[in-house]
Amino acid sequence: MSALVIARKEFVDAIRSRTLQGLVVLFATFICGGIVVATNVPTLIDADVDPATFGILFGLLSPAALVVPVISVLVGYRAIAGEVADGGIYCLLGLPHTRRDVLVGKFLGRFGVVTAAILVGFAVGAATLYLTVTSFAVGPYLTFVAATLLLGGVYLAFTTSISAATASPSRAAWGGFGVFVVFQFLWELAGFLARYAVTGTASPEPPLPAWYTTFVRLSPQNAYQAAATVGLPSDDPFVAGIVAGEEASLLTSRPFAFVILIGWLSIPLAVSYWQVTTMEF
């Protein structure tokens, strides 16, 4: 119960400080702009391309994969480090709250902020998509929203864990953005270099080694792309690039991508729980 009290306070504080409103405007702007642009591109490329599929993949997937991690880092970097730096952690622990209550409450409250921003942004995006295409499938869209919520939770969990490991909010922020850089840019580069060292070729032509496709899929960013497109047909030319090599093993199947995201969400939270319960404030 104490964790829920803290979570509610975190969420209310975000509303009072207009943080939530700003995040909603930011996310909705990116989503709507991406949809408007993406749904007009297929007519210039190929008249047979499904504009709804293209709109989801490039109007929603691309902006969300970049903006959601940034939102999560901005929301989470002061979760614990901010309280330690301001001395508020002593007030919290002086009340009938355990350290676990503080960690869980901070994460849940800030995840509520991220969730609200994503849901409102996607609600606006759904209205925009409905107005700009002739067909709109609700099922794939809801799957996409669920995957995006998990992506936001993953980066919030990482940032919260880093925030619990340092008393400096600035270091927590840089650490959160560092995690994003690793998964967004360096993970696939590391896989490419390893593949080149093992196979001696830089060619991306299939068949690619099973270990390589598995390693690439284990990144939260790539797992998110796979999970977000579960409801879309695999024979669509724009989905084919995402699902390439998914037949290699269970780990590279699109449904299993949800398990990967849940794993990335759970690991940093477990680490941060250990940090909070053992560190001295």
In words, what does this structure look like?
This protein is mainly alpha-helical and 281 residues long. It has helices at residues 2-16, 19-38, 42-45, 51-76, 81-86, 88-94, 99-132, 138-165, 169-199, 210-217, 220-228, 237-243, 256-278. It has 13 helices and no strands.
Can you describe this structure in just a few lines?
It contains 13 helices and no strands. About 2% of the residues have low confidence.
Fill in the keyword field for this structure.
single chain, 281 residues
SSE layout:
Layout: H1 2-16, H2 19-38, H3 42-45, H4 51-76, H5 81-86, H6 88-94, H7 99-132, H8 138-165, H9 169-199, H10 210-217, H11 220-228, H12 237-243, H13 256-278
Helix pairs in contact: 1-7, 2-4, 2-7, 4-7, 4-8, 4-9, 7-8, 8-9, 8-11, 8-13, 11-13
Helix content: over 70%
Order of helices and strands: HHHHHHHHHHHHH
Q: Overall pLDDT, averaged?
A: 79
Care to count the β-strands? 0
Q: What is the strand content?
A: under 5%
Shape: globular
**Looking at the chains present, what oligomeric state does this protein adopt?**
single chain
Structural class: mainly alpha
